[in-house]
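TODO from last week: model SMI1/KNR4 family protein.
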Amino acid sequence: MVFGANGHQWRREPPLTTDELAELESQLDVELPAEYRSFLLQVSRGGAGPAYGLFPAQRVDDRWRWEGDGTELTDLKTLSRPFPHTDAFNPADDLPAPPGKVDFDSEDKFNEAEDAYWRQHEAVVFSPEHSIGLLYLCHLGCAYREALVITGPARGQMWGDDTASDGGFLPLHEPDGSPTGFTRWYRGWLEQAEKQTQSR
């Protein structure tokens, strides 16, 4: 069984019409990267895809959005602002180490300091500013997600978000070291899925 297929059941949502895509981009005030635009118009708006599936673009109450576990990480209001990174980065890198019990003369003081530390950690690591310009497209499990860079110097590239495990953000690459774009990302999943089904 291909991982995640139980969730999407190999179903694909219908593609967007040109009018629907125009309305979506108008609402977001951004033109989506070419490979993803072509996919939305010619293949599907979402459904069967990597891991638990490709988050579908849906029109709800006259507003366009993506639906799925993690789509709330996409800030549609700031999607047109550039994602500034080209190299992997980890928001947790600049945080101090968690407090140790040996530094406190009571359990209560340690617990208070530890709670304060993790509140600060969460505020820094999960700040929405880190994902400006990212469109989250799928959930791989264990809160690891992958996103498409919509704006900025890495526009059109796929990135992984492993902040839930303190792994930070990292660009996806092909075996030859070149950046992974949407088409290569999706085709890579299709090729792997085909190999798995043929080997059964």
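Done. DSSP finds five helices and six strands in the chain.
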